Amino acid sequence: MASPESTINGPTKADSKSLRNAFGGVIAFIILVLIGVLAFSIRLFSVIKYESVIHEFDPYFNYRVTQFLSKNGIYDFWNWFDDRTWYPLGRVIGGTVYPGLTLTAGTIWKVVNSLNIPLSVETVCVFTAPIFSAFASWAAYLLTKEVKGPGAGLTAAALLAMVPSYISRSVAGSYDNEAVAIFALVFTFYLYIKTLNTGSLFYATLNALAYFYMVCSWGGYTFIINLIPMHVLLCIVTGRYSSRLYIAYAPLVVLGTLLAALVPVVGFNAVLTSEHFASFLVFIIIHVVALAYYIKGILSPKMFKVAVTLVVSVGLAVCCAVIAILIAVVASSPTKGWSGRSLTLLDPTYASKYIPIIASVSEHQPPTWPSYFMDINVLAFLVPAGIIACFMPLSDSSSFVILYIVTSVYFSGVMVRLMLVLAPAACILSGIALSEAFNVLTRSIKFQLPGIAGNSTVASEESGSSSVVAPSDVSKTEKTEEVAKEKPVKKNRKKEKENVEKKPTPSKTERRLLVLPLEASVIAVLLLVLLGAFYVVHCVWAAAEAYSAPSIVLTSQSNDGGLHVFDDFREAYSWLSHNTDVDDKVASWWDYGYQTTAMANRTVLVDNNTWNNTHIATVGTAMSSPEKQAWEIFHSLDVKYVLVVFGGLVGYPSDDINKFLWMVRIGGGEFPHIKEPDYLRDGQYRIDAQATPTMLNCLMYKLSYFRFVETDGKGFDRVRRTEIGKKHFKLTHFEEVFTTHHWMVRIYKLKPPRNRIRGKTKKSKSSRSVSSKRDVKGKRNPWH
Amino acid sequence: MAVGIGFRRRLDFLLLVIAILSAPVLSDLILSKVERQIDLTSQIARISSTIKAENDGSSSVSEILLAIPELQAKNLAYLTARVIEGKGKARTSGLALTVEPANPKGMPPALSFYSIVLPKPLANGDSVTLDVLAAFTHSLRPFPEKITQADIHLVLFQDTGHYLSPYPVKVQSLAVKLPQARIESYTKLDNTKNLGSEIKYGPYENLPPFSYSPIAIHFEANQAFAVARELVREIEISHWGNVQVTEHYDIVHGGAMSKGEFSRLDYQSKPQIRGASAFKHLVAKLPPRAHSIYYRDAIGNISTSHVRGDSKKTEILIEPRYPLFGGWRTAFTIGYGLPLHDFVFESEGKRFLNFSFGSPMHDIVTDSITLKVVLPEGSKYLSVSTPFAVQQEEEIKMSHLDIFGRPVIVLKKANAVPEHNQFFQVYYKFNALAMLMEPFMLITGIFFLFVTCIVYVHVDLSISKSSASYLAKLQWDEVRATVQQIQNIINQCLSTHEKLEASLRDLSRTGDVQACKAARKAADGLLKELSKELKPLIAFLQSTPPAAHILPKVEELVAKERELQERLMAKHSTIVDSHEKKLGGKETENRVASVQQKIVALRQDIEDLMEYVDEI
């Protein structure tokens, strides 16, 4: 707010400056709005190229939950026991989902509809992710602004708006937790830094609320609750403890933990599992440190020394006791208090050793180098420069950003999926790097261009050196002032602190030491712009080509240039939903569970929420057993239809035959009579004439290739690029009821059990003996 | 089984015939000629009869009764009668006559009657020729009821070989038109001819009233048995120039149920043989200039559709996601926009919508159709006129930016056939200004948003005007204003310094000492004035407690500025001095160097301080 006097005083220098500031504010606002529009619209490629539809697998579940929520209300949602999945176990949805996304979309839908804008739940769900990515880039602006000023903030926001890694999870239709969680993550970090910079309890409370939203949204909240304590610890160790740090941290832990415990899926895990222990430990430490600083303040140095020796000896004993208790608590829980996915993070080889179901998901694999280039592109090169910029000078907030990037780089190296956490950090640091670089370069250009540099050039060197001294000077005064407790002084110090941070965002005269030659800086600016242009081109390409396919609709270019659409999945789901009984059970591999419940509205055995390994193993076992045994397993589970995905005719690579080894592995993990080597010929997975008889007789093979040979006479599989091994066979216990246009989905019906015919009692006896044999085998089929 | 059912049917009919024969003759009307043609080429059985009636009695007759057996009556979807004038090729059909259900006394209960009201009563000896068209749905019974994919689809149609009428019929004939030449079996009466895909019965002469001879035709039918179990059409009028039509279909294949396997292989390799009973697509004939056509279902867009358009119509061929075999179902939605001026007209101060009633799909049977006409918000005085009886309701629909909601007229009808695609009218009154209400609402909404923002920023919202914090705030504002002033003054000082420096540069260029001195004098005067101005401001800051923490900085700033002034003056006088003494440039520089360094440092300090003060 410019005071009226300044305007009355006429066109003085200060006035023009404030005017420029105000103008800059407006421009920054407009740029932010444009960044929001960019973030939103770059994610609409999927809608424009395909249609407004939910993508992939998990989003279908979220969509279904949102539908339930919007139809039945919040209380029914908390109490929802879903009997259409995990048959016959069912699943308690309200207590096992992160409700953030669903509640967000449900609220948007409700608000919009209460304004008489009749949007369907699907539309709201499709566009939630793009909206929240706009929010996320604004949050990145705020966070970076706190760290390095508005210029860096705008750059970071622009980078985040189109970083491919984030686009991959938030294109329109990709209605997944990550879409809102990244916003929550960045916003929580922003509020933490804001609290750290201001020491305001107001922001501390907001921070706890933002953390609560993050806990609601995504299991990745553990990243926050570990990263912030790490930073606090770092600050304490490096002697940067201040009351602001205390205000930023202590309320977050107390309020945050209480709030987190309100979310049913977290509940008491918020205090019981090891993921959260670090925060409590640091909570204790920060109190000890706070006490130490307080005592140091009231005691004379001599007394303090005595006190320290006393406290250290007592404190060590107490610490030992506490640590012993902690260790005992941790050790008492079976997985040492860590969930499987967290353990995978700490030990990247953990999953492949113990939990094939986690290892079988492609997004849990470690990424390859090209995927870094694909996902964050030139940011990978800018990040180191950003880290350097954060070190000049190092402040509380910039040290946080450094810590953030370092940890997230590690995590992204463990799981492809966590590349998503790296993306905002990379954007923030690259934003800082770019903005600093532009600052230096444009300043050099401006300084050397004749006419603009009115001030004497002689002064440059001295002023440069003096400015280098200044920050440390001020921080010294800050420390001496810290002891004093009067409010104005405190406020003053706060201002000063900000001043310290503002230092690096340079005034024109300050850094003349760093002037570069004119030509070099012009060229450097051009190169940077080129780099940025390259990034933009890559992002748009990634958004348009790589990440916009909804994966339930596939397209291919036909010979005459037209688009050929493969809509087989929906064809099959639509057939199921209209032509089978509402209560029929459909068995398929777990990948298709969510889609089947959401699109076909049929009960499934297993779905993408892989909470019960045994159940999945049962389906895997059935798929890898011969027809009769498989029929028995399925029949005992009340299954009526079996759905398999088969890409051999059109060359769709991610079909069930390619996933089959995982079924064998997961099935074999629970039921030892399924042995992986039985399906491999000399350690090779093949389905041609060289394949093992076990492979050629298993249900998955038969259901996939039933009558396949008659299509071309040879049975040439276009995915495996080979002729199939066993060509002519008949099904005895299953019958084909539906196959989609391109054969990508095949649905079989279990034939009803044969009637007992009189005069064949012998056979029934023998079958009884078979069943008793099965009892002896025990674990083969858990549902008997 | 088949024989058993057929036999029982036949027995029923026999009883029926006995019952009928015992009924009395109604009036003196004689049907001199009846030509019937049964069209079975689609799933709808269309029976068109040309009836020539003669009044043989003494009294005039004003209505003619039509008799339909109960079994067929419940499938009757459509019935009209027209008078035919002229003969041979010149014959023209007149207006449709009123046909209403009748319940004459003394008639056998197994028959339903409809009476045709003649345009003018028939006097003795007069004759009239009528053209009666009746359409029956679900009257082609699949037989066998369950078939496999490879089986051919056979249906059974039953009717009477002789025209069933309460009047005696002199001459009559019947032709049954079938879709294909393949006929499994048909009832042979006297004079039956089979001409490929057509079966002819008759002519028969002089049959008494209520003569009935059941015939059954069992034949292959591979046409689409598309039955919309439910159709909801929503027609939304926007006076901005669009009529939006949305149609929700719930389709079932009404033919023989499919049993056993469905093999895509067989279907793809020999679609004509192993899938003949299925239908792959439907054709909808939309009005011309239809635009923004979409075709989707609950789980998204369906990409298999083709649109062809010309000036007369827009034809859209839609393929469901999968071919429909007997008993298979599917559901989808199509929608399209139409230009408003093609369908909404104005007459006598009222507007009316003129739109076709039934489904635009080719040869589809609709079990239940619900038509919703959504009129724009603010429409009044609604009335509907339909060419046939429908059930009518009204409701309200809330949509974009509605306050009161839009009036909706709901028309419902069961058992509709393409013959029902006649125009109906909805009359309403609508003020064109009401159209502007929604944009106006938006504009006011946004306007008030801005106004509240402005008000919020400018209005002092504190509740207690005497509270300490409020006073402190006021004082603080004052302090800030003062600091601002001080800043301005310092800035002016700085610009004066610049001028001095500039004069020095001029001096070194031109050597004009006098000008330099003059500049010095002017600057001196200005600076003095400014420092005078500065004094009360500093005094004010010293007297106000909230300024305490910035005071040192401000004082420092002022002091530094003064020092800078002094140094600058010193430098200035030194240079001028040395200039007057005509000393060499190097010497001058040496003399000034120390001062110059100080000046630079001071300037830097002042700038830092200014920046700091700026942020307050």
TrEMBL record, chain A:
Bias (Low complexity) ranges: 456-474
Any one GO molecular function term: dolichyl-diphosphooligosaccharide-protein glycotransferase activity
Biological or metabolic pathway of the protein: Protein modification; protein glycosylation
Renumbered residue ranges of the record's region Disordered: 456-506, 755-784
Keywords for this protein: Endoplasmic reticulum, Glycoprotein, Glycosyltransferase, Magnesium, Manganese, Membrane, Metal-binding, Transferase, Transmembrane, Transmembrane helix
Domain named STT3/PglB/AglB core: residues: 583-642
InterPro entries: Oligo_trans_STT3, STT3-PglB_core, STT3_N
Main localisation: endoplasmic reticulum
Source organism, top-level taxon: Eukaryota
Keyword Transmembrane on entry: yes
Basic and acidic residues bias locations: 475-506
Membrane spanning stretches: 21-42, 92-112, 124-143, 149-167, 179-204, 210-234, 246-271, 277-295, 307-331, 372-392, 399-416, 422-441, 513-537
Listed cofactors: Mn(2+); Mg(2+)
Compartments, as annotated in UniProt: Endoplasmic reticulum membrane
Composition bias type Basic residues, residue spans: 755-766
Coiled-coil intervals, chain numbering: none
Annotated ranges, domain Oligosaccharyl transferase STT3 N-terminal: 26-429
Key word Transmembrane helix present: yes
This enzyme's EC code(s): 2.4.99.18
Alphabetical list of Gene3D superfamilies matching this protein: 3.40.50.12610
Membrane topology, from the record: Multi-pass membrane protein
Cellular component annotations (GO), alphabetically ordered: endoplasmic reticulum membrane
Catalysed reactions listed for this entry: a di-trans,poly-cis-dolichyl diphosphooligosaccharide + L-asparaginyl-[protein] = N(4)-(oligosaccharide-(1->4)-N-acetyl-beta-D-glucosaminyl-(1->4)-N-acetyl-beta-D-glucosaminyl)-L-asparaginyl-[protein] + a di-trans,poly-cis-dolichyl diphosphate + H(+)
Subunit structure: Component of the oligosaccharyltransferase (OST) complex.
Family, similarity comment: Belongs to the STT3 family.
Protein name from the UniProt record: dolichyl-diphosphooligosaccharide--protein glycotransferase
Source organism per UniProt: Linum trigynum
TrEMBL record, chain B:
Compartments (UniProt record): Endoplasmic reticulum membrane
Transmembrane residue ranges: 440-459
Coiled-coil annotated residue ranges, if any: 585-612
Family: Belongs to the OST1 family.
One of the Pfam families matching this protein, by short name: Ribophorin_I
Keyword Transmembrane helix: yes
Membrane topology: Single-pass type I membrane protein
InterPro entries documented for this protein: Ribophorin_I
Name of the protein in its database record: Dolichyl-diphosphooligosaccharide--protein glycosyltransferase subunit 1
Function comment: Subunit of the oligosaccharyl transferase (OST) complex that catalyzes the initial transfer of a defined glycan (Glc(3)Man(9)GlcNAc(2) in eukaryotes) from the lipid carrier dolichol-pyrophosphate to an asparagine residue within an Asn-X-Ser/Thr consensus motif in nascent polypeptide chains, the first step in protein N-glycosylation. N-glycosylation occurs cotranslationally and the complex associates with the Sec61 complex at the channel-forming translocon complex that mediates protein translocation across the endoplasmic reticulum (ER). All subunits are required for a maximal enzyme activity.
Signal peptide interval: 1-27
GO BP field: protein N-linked glycosylation via asparagine
Pathway(s) served: Protein modification; protein glycosylation
Domain of life: Eukaryota
Species whose genome carries this gene: Linum trigynum
Keywords: Coiled coil, Endoplasmic reticulum, Membrane, Signal, Transmembrane, Transmembrane helix
Keyword Transcription regulation part of the UniProt annotation: no
A GO CC term assigned to this protein in UniProt: oligosaccharyltransferase complex
Complex formation: Component of the oligosaccharyltransferase (OST) complex.
